[in-house]
Amino acid sequence: MRHDKMDFGSRKAFMLFFAMLLVSGCSGNNQGNGNSPEETAESPGDTPEARDAADAGEQHDSVELSELSDSGEIVPENIDGDAGDAPGDSSMYEESEKTPEQWEAYDSIHSDSRDSEAENETRAEAESNAQCGNGLTEGNEKCDGQVQDCTTKDGKPGVRACSPYCNEFFACVSRELPPSGSPYPRSPILSGISFDRSSWVKAAGGSDQFGQTIASNNNVYLAWGDGGGFGGSNSQGRVSLGVARIEGVPPNWKAHNVWGGVNHESSQQTIQGKANGGIVAIGGILYLNVAEQGVWTNSRLWKSTNFGLTWVQVGRLFNEPNGAFAGCGILQFGPGNEGARDSYIYGYDTSAFKNGLAMFRVAARDIETRSKYEFFTGLDINGNPTWSGDISKIKPVFKDSKGTEWGVTAVYDPYVRRYLLAVRHNGESGDWGLFDAAEPWGPWTTVAYGADFPGWTYTPDPDGASRNRPAYMHQFPQSWMSNDGITIWHMSDRGDQFNLMKATLHLVGP
């Protein structure tokens, strides 16, 4: 398999190829604007104790610096090469809101069922005689990552999957819970994840969270909290909430503070609050679900139509029992939400249940209207999700008796055709799990959990910009995934800073 990065046009062609193959028989304050700071030894005014004092009454914190260019751009340590074009004149940001006709076109592309009835019948007929590598024929069994019952080598009931590439059957995986203590059985498709420590870079010391989305200009946008962003520190350029832009694809990337932080591009004053993972791009519009600073039980929706340069408050969004969805994590797809499952935006929340996740959906065109939001209420007898506008009927979409802590994130990996869900547990330990499913509501299986991960990727960091801070959020931007979806890039805020490293998903063997 190739592991180099394809451009966006090539990726679209790649996905079209798979679709054809399937049918044919394979089933704050405004601070900064000064000279770029130089990386120096810790000053008396920027000690760990001073940082902790500055964080009092705020939700979380962040990290240490990479090498700075003269312009204030971040050039990550041990990274060379270009990182894409920087924004040009203001015409680049001229992005109007969708007209009713444009929304109609959007909805027709992202329809509730991804294929028409006729297309489904054609695919079902093609899959009925599907062969999946090595001359294996499975009758009416589907291919493309679908699973079937089987018996493991030691005689236990299990499941096996035909690979997403439709070239072989994977080994039979036991239905028993894995020894790592996860609440869900092992994934029949992904056997684990590993991390390349030599690729690890740190930036944006003193800032945290870094919830990400990919805008229609193919840049990744991050919502950080409690720091000066890229090139800043815990005190220099500090804002409660800021937005940054990353251009390029790792390992060749550059970061720019757009709204808030050191050398920011926007002239608009920032606001108080935190977005966690509540950032999403719909076409050329960026949205932020911002929880009220120090309260965290309610949120307001903000939007930008010029890629983060200016923001307008839409209004109150969530003010629910137990603070549900005020700090939600939104399911991420491709640039501008391209490649979404359907016409809905999906989000997960850790506040509604002590040891579970709640879930909402809303049509993309209705994201600004709270009354249009629906909540997951369970599965029907056929395993299909049910939804209600009455939040009192909400049911957990995910459970873990060890807890479900804030910072949940989710992304769709279109190449292995799985949704990846990252959820923390065990309080401030940093412990987390990575889960996968064929649909946003499960059923969930385990990729890795707890001690399956190397400690230096998540545990409290004794050398971080703020000492002994664990990773609160784990993310894998879709546009940074390799052609086969196996090589991905892991982002976290461990140690109160931006951490980035290459990671590899491992497929279950044949």
Write the layout of secondary structure elements.
Blueprint: H1 8-23, H2 48-54, E1 67-68, E2 74-75, H3 100-109, H4 117-127, E3 147-151, E4 157-161, E5 173-174, E6 190-203, E7 208-214, E8 220-227, E9 239-249, E10 252-259, E11 279-282, E12 285-291, E13 299-304, E14 312-316, E15 329-332, E16 344-353, E17 356-363, E18 374-379, E19 385-388, E20 398-399, E21 405-413, E22 418-424, E23 432-437, E24 445-449, E25 474-475, E26 487-492, E27 498-507
Parallel strand pairs: 15-21
Antiparallel strand pairs: 1-2, 3-4, 4-5, 6-27, 7-8, 8-9, 9-10, 11-12, 12-13, 13-14, 15-16, 16-17, 17-18, 17-20, 18-19, 21-22, 22-23, 23-24, 25-26, 26-27
Question: Could you characterize the architecture of this molecule?
Answer:
The chain is mainly beta and 510 residues long. Helices cover 9% and strands 32% of the residues. It contains four helices and 27 strands. The strands form six sheets. Strands 15, 16, 17, 18, 19, 20, 21, 22, 23 and 24 form a ten-stranded mixed β-sheet that branches. Strand 18 and strand 19 form a beta hairpin. The longest helix is centred in the N-terminal third of the chain and has 16 residues.
